Amino acid sequence: MTQQDKAITLFGSLKTEYKTIEAMVKIYCKDHHKTATLCEQCEDFLQYAHTRLDRCPYGEEKPTCRICPIHCYKADYKLLSQKIMRYAGPRMLLKHPVLAVRHLIAEKRPIPVKPAAGASNRHKRKSLGQ
Ligand SMILES: [Zn+2]
Predict the structure, then answer these.
(1) How much distance in Å is there from the Cα of 34 to the middle of ligand 1?
(2) Which residue of 14, 28, 36, 65 has the smallest Cβ count within 10 Å?
(3) In this structure, are residues 55 and 8 in contact, taking their beta carbons and an 8 Å threshold?
C-alpha cells in the first residue's frame, strides 16, 4: 500500500467513520507505543482501515463494523482492531463525545439486507472521476 491511498476521498458517513477510527487509534497508540506521532504499525493499520472503508460494498449504508455480516478484515488486522476498540472505545466518550455518540447511534440502525450494486465509496469515486 502507498502513502497516497489515504489521500483518497471518503464520502459522508464513511469519512466520519474514518475520523472515529483515527481518533481511537491515536488514543491506543499514545498509551501503548509511546511514540510522539503514530507508530509505523498503527499508521499501517489506519491505512488498511481506510482502504476497507473505501471498498465496503455497503458504501454509506454501511453498518458499524461490530455488527456487520461481512467479515472483510484479514485475521491479524481484525485482532488488532479488537484490541484498539476495546481499549479506546470507553475512552472515546470523554475525548470525542460527538464521534462516540454518533457511533453509538449508528449501532442501533438496522443492518441493510444486502448492499446495493455500486454502493461502495470506490465505485462512487470512480464515477466522479476521482
Ligand atoms: Zn502505535
Answers:
(1) 8
(2) 36
(3) no
